[in-house]
Request: fold
Amino acid sequence: MLPSDRADNERNGSLMDRLTENLVRRLAGQSSRRGVLARLGAAMAAVPAFPLLPVTRASAATASPAARTVKAPSPFAAHAQAKDDTACDYWRYCAIDGYLCTSCGGGIHSCPPGTAPSPTSWIGSCFNPQDGRSYLIAYRDCCGQDACDEVNCLNTDGDQPSYRPMANNDIIWCFGTGTSEMYNCSTAAIIGSTT
Reply:
């Protein structure tokens, strides 16, 4: 190598060194080590989320809900229907024990005239065959008149012993209504989704 070539290489090398040094010093002056580590950590944490980006979800969204087949979680759910709310096999009644307010002049979640809803309820988780989802159902007794003696159902999906009263359907829940503790019928209101 000629002495003139060596001098050119040293000048070019020193120019590149100076540019790199200036760039690194400017970067170091504008950021801290913690900031760089935080960005690096955030990038490392975000990498596993890339498969969840909309590209993956878009293909899943194209499948229609009817195309999804969800297995019924219990024997009651396997035979439940979603059309007649005056029948014991209606999907919301998976854990009901008593007369249906829908056959006594009330509704699925409303008491018949002349009765009052109990302030407390028991709960169940029922599978809706129409949408393939499970819902939390609050069963509330309607109180203040004799039992209407129409459609009486005893469904026990998820029924718990009496030492777990919030999920026990054998208790008459009319205490605390302020009127009469006489049981009339039971309602089944959706209070949330479990899936």
Summary: Residues 3-60 form one domain.
